[in-house]
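Hi P.,

Sorry for the delay on this. The queue was packed all week, but I finally got your sequence through. Input first:
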Amino acid sequence: MKKNVLLLFIVAFCSQLLVAQNLKKANYLFEKRAYLNAAELFLNETAKTQDVLAKLGDCYYFNSKMAEATVWYQNLMNSYENSVEPAYFFRYSQALKGIKKFDEADKWFHKYAEKKQPNSTTINTTQTFIEDLATNKIETYTVNKIDINSEFSDFGTSFFGDKIVFASNRIQGKNYDWNNLPYLDLFQVEINNLNNSSKVIPFSETINTKLHESNAVFTKDGKTMYFTRNNFIDGKKGKDEHKITHLKIYKAELLNNEWTNIVELPFNGSNYSTEHPALSKNEKQLYFASDMPGTIGSFDLFMVDIHEDGSYGLPINLGPSINTEQREQFPFISNQNELFFASDGHFGFGNLDVFKSNISENNFSKPQNLGEPINSNLDDFAFIINAENNNGFISSNRLNGIGNDDIYSFTYKKSIFVSGIVQNKNSLALLPGTLVTLYNNTNKILNETIVDKNASYSFEIEPNKAYKLKGALKLFNPTIIEFLTDTKGNINKNILLHLESYEDAEKNIVVDNGKTQIKINPIYFDFDKWNIRKDAALELDTIVEIMKKYPDMVIEIGAHTDCRGTEEYNLTLSHKRAKSVREYLVRQGISNENVKSVGYGETQPLNHCIKPGMCKSEEYDINRRCEFVILN
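Then the structure:
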């Protein structure tokens, strides 16, 4: 009996020792960033403590296995929500976006935001964000997966003459601890062979080693390259105190068609990573990502000057307009002096998204998310573009769902807009309700809008075209502006439309009795007649002159009588007189459509003389009149 008890005690002790050793090894692998191997051991832990749940979520999260990550983050939140660090709310939110559970992701992102900024009133929702991007979209991308991708990871393209150079772990060899996949090498392929995987060849034996090489960038003359490689000392991996091998940026020169003079840059370090080099438009600055001391987040973007003698300045953090508390990586500078980069800290679709910021004297505009289809709910990064032919490449793991990356090509069209506001020419007051119309050079209507309370308009246009804008508003003289776009679509993007009211433009146009009218001296008709007398014609010629000056003007001729005579007689007589005036104006060259005639008889008196015998003759004369009311 004693022997059995002792045996059970030994078994239990050994089991506890084995469990402790298992956990110790799991933690060791986790600290080494051997995440998938660590996950296998954490899964065997019976007691899923807060630390184990958090690390299990992280193991899958850092390998872009978001379905698995959400399972363990959810268990973590269910049991330990009140004691977890804010970073886990963020990662859980990102993992949920990775499986397109956007509403649930927003819930946890708001919890993260509340912990980081308790008094903040800014609340983003993914759906609203996506809708706003679609509404305000000014750039159109067509994205296609290309055939040079392998069954493993392929990413990080760069232009190299008529080729692209990219990173891939397609050649089997020793696996990397982080994801249990082979180490990366650089490969190249001619751009016209993107759909022929057999044309892909290794880049250079002097560049590729048994460790990681990735994310190269080349000078315009093709004689210098910068690239990312593991810390490599005397042919071996250089490790920090935690046994972690970081990344460094190296420089190489092309001499006699061989890449040589490979040196690491002086701002590298053995306790942090520098990676993803990118050259400025003038090649005098090198941009890169790093987690070196002084970063705002886990990885920030930096810039360093390249001096004429080949030395380098001190790295400069791009600051909080670009960098967040999360990751900013994979910079690229276009020939249009735009900074493109990947970030999961700026609000987006989920995980890494591509953003754009305009560079001006080392200042950076607010980053803009490029939207779909460039970005997805998973990682999208390593964006490069050739602004000359509007083609480029992006890397993403959007389709496979297992963390492997693929290269996509894209074509790009920048939507060009003419926009502006409509104002009163004299007071500069906004003119809501104005109809703004866009015409082509054959006067075909292309688009039109009635401006709202902000009096603003915007129309999409095309390069190398002639256009015409017209603003029209009741009681205002329409404004027409012609303009051209050049082959690049450069135009005045803010064309102001200034409309002048008829009242301001002409002294003969006044507001009287609540109506905008052309005022002339009274015209007279012979008794019981409606033909135009010579003295009346002289006055009507003023109407003709004004209407020819404003060919869009539409008027109503309203003929009125006094109350002497029967109502039926007066109504008939006023119709005849109004019609007679209209016919005179048309004979003088005024368009039929611009003149309407109405006889009102005695129905609209201007004074109290509404019955025969009430007033003196001159008082009745006030009601006998022709009014020329402007309708448009």
